[in-house]
Amino acid sequence: MKKALKKILNTIDVPSDLNSIISIDHKREVSPESVGMTENGVNDIWQSVINLYKTGTQPAIELCLRRKGEIVLNRSIGHVRGNGPLDTPYTPKTIATPDTPICLFSASKAVTALLVHILAEDGSISLLDPVSYYCPEFAQNGKKNITIHQILSHRGGIPGIPPNTPIEVLWDNDEIWRLLCEAKPISVDGDHLAYHAITGGYVLERVIKTVTGKNIQQYLDEKIRKPMGMKYFTYGVEDKDLSTLAENYMTGPKLGFPISWVVKRALGADAETIGQVINDPRFQEAVIPAGNLAATAEEISRFFQMMNNGGEWSGKRICDPLTIKRSVQEYGSMQIDRTMMVPMRYSAGMMLGGNPVGIWGPMSGSAYGHIGLINKMCWVDEARDISCSMLTTGISFVGHHIPSLVMFVNSVGKNCSRIPNAKKVSAFA
Q1: Residue 335 forms beta bridges with which residues?
Q2: What is the dihedral of CA 233, 234, 235, 239, to 10 degrees?
Q3: What distance in Å separates the CA atoms of residue 403 and residue 409, rounded to the nearest whole number?
Q4: Residue 48 and residue 308: Cα distance in Å, rounded?
Q5: pTM of the predicted model, to two decimals?
Q6: pLDDT per residue as tens digits for the range 306-315
Q7: Which segments within 10-69 are labelled E, that is strand?
Q8: H-helix or E-strand containing 8?
Q9: b/e map of 83-100 (b: 16 or more CB within 10 Å)?
Q10: In this structure, are strands 249-250 and 394-395 parallel, antiparallel, or unpaired?
């Protein structure tokens, strides 16, 4: 019976001795009391991660939580590879650590978005300019007036790649740019909110390259990665790092309609094809600005902490505080996203929380961040003075693990109480 259920749910074997697959960064974790938390509260958050792991949908989970700028939790549980749903007890296994890089998938959009906002801060572009002002070829088929800001806020009218596009095009940036230039938009006036899962990143990449003469990887290195001392934090990884990058696994039950339709509409491929692509070395080594930044949970938490600091990190000015506020300012009220078919609030690059409840939990009106393929969650909550990132390696769109994801977010909010008279005031709370 247990084996049959495991096959239906498409889950991993959860080891009986969880302590043997948990790694804790004792050197960097500070006392909870030093940042206004309790040991019981921190244990409650970590237990919520363990509970998610026990669902069998996540072969590995990394968590990094900063409170008042200090690391309270930097831990991992599970295996980088060797314990997928189809692996056997004899498959060689590698235990995950907090230093394991994991693909962020759509959480990459937050980083790409801030790069564009930094470009605007430099005076090189205006976010209200049409994309075609910098890249005239984009004007085809009525896209002449679609602005950079509309692309950032998922109102650019090109939410999906053209139907029947070969999956290999994802790592051929010139070819996908040609297809996007030729694409006919579903809207040109910014009134259609429709999540741009992959497309927007390629457009923003082309703007950066056209204006600066540098590719987006070079621009990321210059503006964020090197100044902040990141080891990974790159779009894709080099060939030498492929064995270090965590493997991703398709988990959870087989998708049926309408979820299968929503997934294909959003990502341009069915779940089976996505499962083949995510571990393809061509995808892992490519530059896909909206979908394949590789980082540790600590690194992406570091990035969001910099945003929470108003653009400053370790005495270095990464960007102006006003740039941060512009990047998180709500654009349009909460409404149904026509791609994902759920109500969402967006800024020009971020997924926003809400009051009395939002994507980042109850009373999260001062929170912003991004999810990656449903199960990766990275965000800042200014009112709680936290930067949190949970990276997972299971790709499960639906299933019994969803309540555990919700409980994790709620646990973070509950145990990191809102700080009265917080210095930081959200631009959209």
Answers
A1: 344
A2: -120
A3: 10
A4: 24
A5: 0.94
A6: 999 999 999 9
A7: 22-24, 60-67
A8: helix 2-9
A9: bbbebeeeeebbbbebbb
A10: parallel
